[in-house]
Specification:
Rossmann fold; 7 helices; 7 strands
Length: 207
């Protein structure tokens, strides 16, 4: 009964959500696209002719946005879940942490990458602290992989949840990047603890 009530409340919220409505009008697969749009508006992430790796890409709204925003670019998206095809994007179904998939990613780009994005998060368990910790671990894994494959002037963007891992994530990011910013887009739900870290310029001794 309680589960049904939660489901009904979620459906009501979705119907009232302006970002959900807008994503349907504009043909995006989820409202998450507007978070990335805000990040790009504020921090000037994208330009034409660049290479972009999209981690945790399903259902694909970030990849859709990148495909429209970046002309003549090289874009790869990866997720554990199956995704419908997006034109001009290489898609992998799998775990980016597995060595075989990392080798596929590196081979596809054939060199260093301009941007690594991560919108990864665990399926919510009901335990917000646990969800924060596990999603934080995914963000850390994304940072470690990003520093391996990014160009020295590359950019890294990742979602994480405010919680016990916050300081550790920021500390690690500052260790590897000269510039780090924390930003919560307006498109993030008000009651959500999610926020984003935007990093630029790898420190030379990590290249």
């Amino acid at each position: 009964m309680k589960k049904n009530k939660i489901s009904k409340n979620w459906i009501i919220k979705q119907k009232r959500d302006i970002y959900v409505k807008q994503s349907k009008i504009e043909g995006y697969r989820s409202r998450a696209v507007y978070k990335l749009q805000e990040i790009d508006d504020k921090f000037k992430i994208f330009k034409n002719g660049i290479s972009v790796l999209d981690l945790g890409a399903a259902p694909g709204s970030w990849s859709q946005f990148i495909a429209k925003k970046v002309k003549n670019g090289k874009i790869l998206s990866i997720d554990l879940k199956e995704m419908d095809n997006i034109e001009n994007i290489c898609q992998i179904k799998g775990d980016f942490k597995e060595n075989k998939n990392q080798q596929i990613i590196k081979k596809y780009f054939g060199g260093e990458v301009d941007i690594v994005l991560s919108d990864m998060a665990v399926n919510t368990s009901g335990n917000k602290n646990l969800d924060s910790i596990v999603t934080g671990e995914l963000s850390m894994e994304a940072i470690y992989f990003a520093k391996e494959i990014l160009k020295s002037d590359g950019k890294f963007v990742s979602k994480f949840f405010m919680g016990s891992t916050f300081k550790e994530i920021v500390s690690e990011a500052k260790k590897y990047f000269k510039e780090t910013n924390i930003f919560k887009p307006l498109a993030s739900r008000k009651n959500s603890k999610e926020t984003f870290i935007i990093c630029k310029l790898l420190r030379k001794y990590y290249k």
